[in-house]
Specification:
alpha/beta; DNA polymerase, domain 1; Rossmann fold; Arc Repressor Mutant, subunit A; 3 domains; nine-stranded mixed sheet; three-stranded antiparallel sheet; 18 helices; 14% strand; globular
């Protein structure tokens, strides 16, 4: 039996949230996800939002006079809303709102979560333990092998794998996860009834069927994929996940956008190193070099980093992270550092070492993965 949050229909109203009103609000030009959430949270129901006087509406943070006017004067198009539900029913889909209990908690906590998620399949509480895996549409043999290895090992550890159903790394990730009886979530750059690329329709069906995971999108039904939608889609991929793994990517690859959204959301970012001679590893190597992503050589590297968040589903003992050997000066400097960046002059003052000596030893600590250098000769402990 489907949960109440999943039983969406033309008359679905729960806790003051009318799903038809939400579709209407999100159809009004200028009324974004953030504005919709702010309005409903302020007035406590969608009905109250639509009945509110413009003077009351503009008291809500982010709502301007043109927004209030649009809300008051835009008629609800019930025929268009009926069409959305008709198309949703044809693919045996459901519709989640930001206020539903089964809405992904991690996604709810990002800066701009989608108000609506159109869904095939089902999300479960287990999906809170998820890792995103993304990469190039044209992986090298090395990239394919890496994608298969990490997806397999995550599936074996009951960690949901999130990706974008694109050609290349995404497809490999979804297929490998299913092959090893894992759960996977595909986040689309079009609506859930317009699967792109077309050759992945059978894969989307497999994901949505038999409890294997979910295929979802924030886009209204009958919306074809478009390049403009992918950056927004990527924030959902990283937003649903505890961390994001970039498998293989050029410096200007789409996966690098997902890396940026993960960092913006303050989520862990991981990167698999590749050959310096391979263009498709330029992006992953750059993320590691800049200190934005943590270098990973096995799934255990991810598990150690996310041990606290994953503790409920992991074995009681994880492989210990290798402790680097520090010389006496490196140890002295490391003891003075924290997660707050400090300027090299302050470090020298606190350790009573010459700035030149501090810089030499900071370089050694950086090589050992103990510290990270920021702009302006600022350093922090990793």
């Amino acid at each position: 039996m489907r949960s109440p949050a999943e039983r969406t229909g033309p008359g679905s109203v729960q806790n003051g949230i009318d799903i038809r009103d939400l579709i209407h609000l999100r159809s009004i030009p200028g009324i974004s996800d953030r504005k919709t959430i702010a309005l409903v949270d302020h007035f406590r129901s969608t009905d109250a939002v639509l009945a509110a006087d413009p003077r009351a509406l503009i008291k809500v943070r982010g709502i301007r006079e043109p927004d209030a006017s649009a809300i008051r004067h835009t008629a609800r198009d019930d025929r268009a809303i009926d069409t959305q539900f008709s198309l949703l029913n044809k693919v045996n889909g459901s519709l989640l709102s930001y206020w539903d209990a089964v809405y992904p908690e991690q996604l709810r906590n990002i800066y701009d979560p989608p108000v609506l998620l159109f869904l095939r399949g089902a999300l479960t509480p287990a999906d809170r333990y998820s890792i995103a895996m993304v990469g190039t549409r044209h992986p090298t043999p090395y990239g394919r092998a890496a994608a298969e290895t990490f997806a397999r090992e995550l599936a074996r550890r009951s960690i949901t794998v999130v990706s974008g159903l694109a050609r290349g790394v995404d497809t490999i990730v979804h297929r490998t996860t299913l092959q090893h009886q894992g759960r996977t979530v595909a986040v689309l750059g079009g609506s859930i009834d317009r699967i792109y690329p077309g050759e992945n329709i059978p894969l989307a069906d497999r994901i949505a069927d038999a409890g294997n995971g979910a295929v979802l999108s924030e886009l209204f039904m009958s919306t074809p994929s478009h390049p403009a939608f992918f950056p927004r889609r990527n924030r959902i991929i990283s937003g649903m996940s505890l961390g994001t793994l970039i498998v293989e990517s050029d410096e200007d690859g789409g996966a690098m956008i997902t890396a940026t959204t993960a960092l913006d959301q303050n989520r862990e970012l991981f990167s698999i190193p590749g050959s310096i001679m391979e263009r498709k590893s330029a992006g992953t190597n750059k993320l590691i070099k800049s200190g934005q992503a943590k270098l990973v050589q096995s799934v255990d590297d991810i598990l150690v980093e996310l041990e606290h968040a994953l503790r409920p589903i992991l074995p009681s003992r994880l492989p210990a992270a290798a402790q680097p050997q520090l010389n006496v000066f490196e140890q002295k400097i490391a003891e003075q550092l924290s997660s707050e960046p400090q300027h090299v002059d302050l470090i020298a003052e606190r350790t009573q070492l010459a700035v030149s000596d501090v810089l030499v030893n900071l370089l050694g600590l950086e090589f050992k993965g103990v510290v990270r250098q920021m702009a302006g000769k600022m350093f922090l402990r990793v």
